Amino acid sequence: MSMNSKTAIVTGITGQDGAYLTQLLLEKGYKVFGTYRRTSSVNFWRLEEVGALGHANLELVEHDLTDLGASIRLMEEAQPDEVYNLAAQSFVGVSFNQPITTAEITGLGAVNLLEAIRIVNPKIRFYQASTSEMFGEVQQIPQTEVTPFYPRSPYGVAKLYAHWMTINYRESYGIFGTSGILFNHESPLRGKEFVTRKITDAAARISLGMQPVLELGNLDAKRDWGFAKEYVEGMWRMLQVDTPDTFVLATNRTETVRDFVSLAFKAVDIQLDWQGNAETEHGIDSRTGKTLVQVNPRFYRPAEVDLLIGNPEKATQVLGWKPQTTLEQLCQLMVEADLQRVQTGKSF
Ligand code: NDP
Ligand code: GDR
């Protein structure tokens, strides 16, 4: 017997958040239509990792966010109560080289779904995956739901457009459009191009003698990093309250990329000493004197977001949501997962 007869669409089901949210919704008894885009080889390893692949209540549907007709048919076919729009060209670095694609997927893609909802059934509740990247250049800290936006990348600009369109559909058509402004959230399911997972994977490989050195870009960037599994719970809670709104999810703690590197190496018993600065900076193994981390300007971005730190007080008060996992615990669990993967020859 199902505990819940609700149906949800999750776009971007092959991504980090898509996997955790699907796991959560299935546990709650939802029927889930998970959308993925066609690729030459399937990409369901995260769904497999969370035990969702093959679940009787999970239907995988091929869908590209840039196709309005497909979005309308998706709503008609699934008849969902809730839509979680997690699909995006989500990598900030790439958005500088692919600004148009990013605008089409990350910006207009959300509007395709909103239009489909407006046409098929305006009662469908919609969650938009907004981002702390919309704050960009620091205007005030900690950032909250009322902090002015100043995005610093084509990704941030595209997300800001989708964010405002969600609010506009809420105000214009009474659609339950909610936007979660989520600060960075990480996990062992994070893609390896993002900095935390790049670091934990490298720490594991370096400690096992399988990689000589880790190359990174800006070590001074400060981020507010939380645990993804807790953040998808916040997304779900946002659609269970009576009124659509905007919520920040964050930990209210910020650390530099350099700090995260030190934590990850500590998790494999390597103490790093930092020497040099800017492009010459490098992290040295305090026992052997070997350089294990170095800066490569190839990973710098044309414009950077220097400092993010969010205040999740509204989410705590209205949704009862609070982050639980510390950065130390998060880093430790990511490093452990990567050590295990590397030792068992898994490449994801
Ligand atoms: P991922 O990069 O892990 O996942 C993105 C998903 O979008 C993937 O499933 C990807 O498919 C899919 N996708 C990309 N392009 C298209 C397209 N044209 N049509 C359909 N699907 C597409 O991101 P996360 O899970 O980390 O993040 C989820 C969402 O939350 C994203 O929108 C992200 O921008 C946003 N966000 C993330 C934060 C974070 O810290 N993780 C913080 C704030 C916001 P494929 O696997 O085929 O590439
Ligand atoms: P971000 O995440 O841009 O915050 O976007 P990312 O992990 O890519 O970068 C975080 C910070 O680390 C610096 N950095 C590097 N980044 C990467 N990827 N690779 C490097 O080698 C490297 N060296 C230093 C970056 O310059 C940056 O300052 C993520 C994504 O999940 C978005 O989709 C989401 O919206 C935001 O988080 C919140």
UniProtKB/TrEMBL annotation:
Enzyme Commission (EC) number: 4.2.1.47
InterPro entries: GDP_Man_deHydtase, NAD(P)-bd_dom
Protein family (similarity comment): Belongs to the NAD(P)-dependent epimerase/dehydratase family. GDP-mannose 4,6-dehydratase subfamily.
Coiled-coil segments: none
Matches recorded under CDD domains: GDP_MD_SDR_e
Annotated organism of origin: Stutzerimonas zhaodongensis
Record's catalysed reaction(s): GDP-alpha-D-mannose = GDP-4-dehydro-alpha-D-rhamnose + H2O
Domain of life: Bacteria
Source lineage: Bacteria, Pseudomonadati, Pseudomonadota, Gammaproteobacteria, Pseudomonadales
Record PANTHER family: GDP-MANNOSE 4,6 DEHYDRATASE, GDP-MANNOSE 4,6-DEHYDRATASE
Major enzyme class: lyase
Purpose of the protein: Catalyzes the conversion of GDP-D-mannose to GDP-4-dehydro-6-deoxy-D-mannose.
Protein name: GDP-mannose 4,6-dehydratase
Keyword check for Membrane: no
Keywords: Lyase, NADP
The protein's required cofactors: NADP(+)
Sample GO molecular function, one term: GDP-mannose 4,6-dehydratase activity
Gene (name only): gmd
Residue span, NAD(P)-binding domain: 9-334
